[in-house]
Amino acid sequence: MARCEVCFRHCEIKEGQAGFCKARICKDGRVVPANYGWHTAIHIDPIEKKPIARFYPGSKVLSVGSYGCNLRCPFCQNHEISWDDIAMEVAAAVAGRLTGEVSMENEKEPSIPELRGYASSTMQEDLPHQKLHSYTPPINPDDPPHPELYSYVPPELLVESAIRDRWMGVIGIAYTYNEPLIGYEYVLDTARLAHAKGLKNVLVTNGTAETSVLEKLLPYIDAMNVDLKGFTDRYYEKVLGGNREMVMNFIERAVKDTHVELTTLIIPGENDTEGEMQELTAWVSNLRDRHGKLIGRQVPLHISRFFPRFHMTDRPATEVRKVYRLAEVARQKLEYVYTGNC
User: Which of 8, 29, 67, 330 is deepest in the core (most CB within 10 A)?
Assistant: First the structure.
């Protein structure tokens, strides 16, 4: 058994089993990222889609994602690759090949569902797999257990792809779609290589990670968008299965060394009051840089409209006027407030 140190859960994982996120498993008495290098999503996106509004606007990033997540948001827009059936099938297949057994919740024989556009469109199969920068993949990439669901992309190959795509306005790589920090080792290896090649690294995260993980990544991350999903412990714990204090600590540390933007998705009846927005933005406005200077008012906040999806189809879409009103409230404390999905 080994203890995972990535997030507040600190899962005690038995040999051959996976932690809560389904991406980190215990092998040979230590916790390793089973999803290292395995991608369920790879696209070229405008950087504004992350969303990041005030870092190289008009540019594009090569966006990649794997499987698994350490939250359980019932409205997840990427649930297929985060923690729904497809993600669990991928996780079970990878863990089964890695450990010689399948030990997952909702265990079942993997099928071959369609990914509806999640498959790689930029990979070149004739390029050889190269030696990794600092980490040996836990499974042989030439013998994947379930190739229809994902592609193995070593850090070197991903960086080469981003360099080839520069002619399309690509400035770097975004680690996104599922929660990238549950496989932070891959982010770290890739970001190091990308940084050395003059590429930008963008992290899109729920911020549910220890600052010790963040410290390893910060020298190579140029910008990030962090979900500050609400501002009550009830919402984080009862609805999302998360920890608000950990996210706040993560943001407080991140703003000291990199460009940070925040996103809050407004869910009717959950985090949609003006009072909560006032408390959230008051806290953001007091963030400080590494020299103690107040910079919070300049931290961009994206306020997004919710649409019914996944396990939360019983709620109506957020009223547009509600999103605009909350943006007005936010602008009392913050200089850069954006609305999304309206």
Answer: 67
One digit per residue, pLDDT tens: the chain, 342 residues? 899 999 999 999 998 888 999 899 888 898 989 888 888 889 999 999 999 999 999 999 999 999 899 999 999 888 777 776 766 776 677 666 665 554 433 333 222 222 222 223 332 332 233 333 344 444 555 555 555 556 788 899 999 999 999 999 999 999 999 999 999 999 999 999 999 999 999 999 999 999 999 999 999 999 999 999 999 999 999 999 999 999 999 999 999 999 999 999 999 999 999 999 999 999 999 999 999 999 999 999 999 999 998 889 989 999 999 999 999 999 999 999 999 998
Q: Sign (positive/negative) of CA torsion 272, 273, 274, 277? A: negative
Contact (CB, 8 A) for 40 and 150: yes
* CA 318 vs CA 225, 246, 271, 307, 333: distances in Å: 22, 27, 11, 7, 23
pTM value is 0.86
